[in-house]
Amino acid sequence: MKNQIVVPTGYMESGSSAVTDLLSEIEGYEVNNGSYEYILMHCPDGVFDLEDKLLYGNNSIRSDEAVYRFLGCMKELYQKKNYWPGGYRKILSKHFLEHCYDFIKRLEPIELKETYWYFQENPDSIRMHILYLARRILRKLGFRNKLTENAPLRYHNMRVVIPQKERFFLEAKAFLRDIFNDLGYAQRNLVLDQFLLPHNLFRIKEYFDESLRVFVVERDPRDVFAANKYLLKKDGIPVPYPLNVEDFCRMYRAVRESESMIDDTRIFRLHFEDLIYDYEQTLPQIYSFLGVDAEKHRHKRTKFDPNISIRNTMLFKRLPSIEKEILEKDLKDYLFDFPKST
């Protein structure tokens, strides 16, 4: 049986790390980096942004900006070991940056050495500001030399990449194979937390084969709001959702409605709460989805224990009544039907 690429994902604080923990209990699904989030595909200037810029409405300027930002983003993820989603040199591979440059090289960029455009002139350092000022002053004084004629640039040589769709996805798949092989895909299943997000799952047919398995975890939005506002914020953790309940409802609904729902056997959708309140009945569904026997779950409850995680449910009971009422009215379609005995 071919090894799998397994991606637990969700809708921000939805509890997808519970699936990561549970998978780590199953033989053959060891999770070396825990719930570390791999964001290289969907982060700003990541692979999906590169796809959109190179395949839709592309031109010489747009493609140069796309390549520059993609490589810059990947370099930051590779080099910044104290940046929480970074540290790829150690966590992913010391060859990761080479794979990024090889990916672009295989798309056969055309380098324009004799020209530049406004993005390259945009000053992004004190040095560039000083050079611009000196250039303007010298020109006004009537001097004409190398400094006044050559604009200070953020980088040299434009790279024009306008690939056909088939070529882009062919090379993108090769790029992913390089990364997966460095992570040991030939020897084991890979569990990559947040490698994809729910709203970009419509892209998977172009990047992945049948070895992909995606767990999309959702959680009662009342608990998402309660955790964000009254737990995470209190602990100084940045919260990407509004803390005003009306704004939260508006944003949460917009996020969920923006998702392009696709029917794909490689995607398994479940509630965080089902892992807790319906644990024994949910496990066989997970085994079936992965194609593993129940006896492979040798370390049951060592990483994910529903008796402990139950403390992270029904947090909304602590909410002020007005916030609870608004959440239940505006997001009624997304509420979990808790057992009556709770």
List the helices and strands and how they pair.
Elements (H helix, E strand, L loop, with lengths): L4 E6 L5 H8 L23 H9 L4 H20 L8 H4 L4 H11 L3 E3 L5 H4 L4 H15 L5 H4 L8 E3 L4 H18 L7 E2 L12 H4 L4 E7 L2 H12 L12 H13 L9 E5 L2 H4 L1 H12 L15 H4 L11 H10 L12
Parallel strand pairs: 1-4, 1-5, 5-6
Antiparallel strand pairs: 2-3
Helix pairs in contact: 2-3, 3-5, 5-9, 12-16
Spell out the key features of this protein.
6 strands; alpha/beta; globular; two-stranded antiparallel sheet; four-stranded parallel sheet; 342 residues
Q: What would you note in describing this structure?
A:
This protein is an alpha/beta fold. The protein is built from 16 helices and 6 strands. The protein has a 4-stranded parallel sheet. Strands 2-3 form a two-stranded antiparallel sheet. Helix 2 runs antiparallel to helix 3. The chain is globular, with a radius of gyration of 24 Å. The chain starts with a strand and ends in a 12-residue tail after the last helix.
